[in-house]
Amino acid sequence: MTPKLVAVVTGGSNGIGEGIVKHFVAAGATVINVDVAKPADAVVAACPFYEVNLADAGATREAAARIARDFEVNCIVNNAGTPTPGFLEDVTDEAFDLGVNLTMRTPVILSQAFVPGMKARRFGRIVNISSRALLGKKARTIYSATKAAMVGLTRTWAMELGPHGITVNAIAPGPVLTELFKKNNPPEIAAKLVEHAIVGRAGTPEDIARAVHFLADPANGYITGQVLHVCGGSSLTLNW
Hints:
240 residues, alpha/beta, Rossmann fold, seven-stranded parallel β-sheet, 8 helices, 45% helix
């Protein structure tokens, strides 16, 4: 019997995360949204919601334990992140800690909470949302480094968890015109980033959501440890 997806999505209240939640719900999955912000979209708002500052390890562990008690989670989408913009000289300890805690530590905490249940059921899916920036991006020292680190997590966990029926993959989005993207990329910079997309347009949250759901599909158990660039071809360019 094909298992129904019961997915925890971090940062599901807006942007790419909102698109992922809506797509999974439309596909019949149960989705638990974990975010610091309350959702505005009606579909997302109808999902179980845990309001958590994911940069806070204690709060994240507590919420993960509660979710694990209430739901048989078999899918994690580690989407929450922050761009932490700034050139090398501008990097602060606070920004460094935020980027590492949110992008690297949170996926570890959630996986520690939900992987035991996945192992017991011999099925699980973990999809980490990395970024085209893992290949390098100006003024994104912390962001590019932590998104690259997610690939290391992905490959290592795939090796560890594959024998238990759990696949682990990553998506690396290119420029996606969310409000966060617009906020952190001035119009002239955003236009140049979109120019690097060979397909001639920016991405949408739905573009990313379709790819995430493909990797989470119970039928796709022969794909693991991979990074899928959903970037309109921008990963082929040298300067971003």
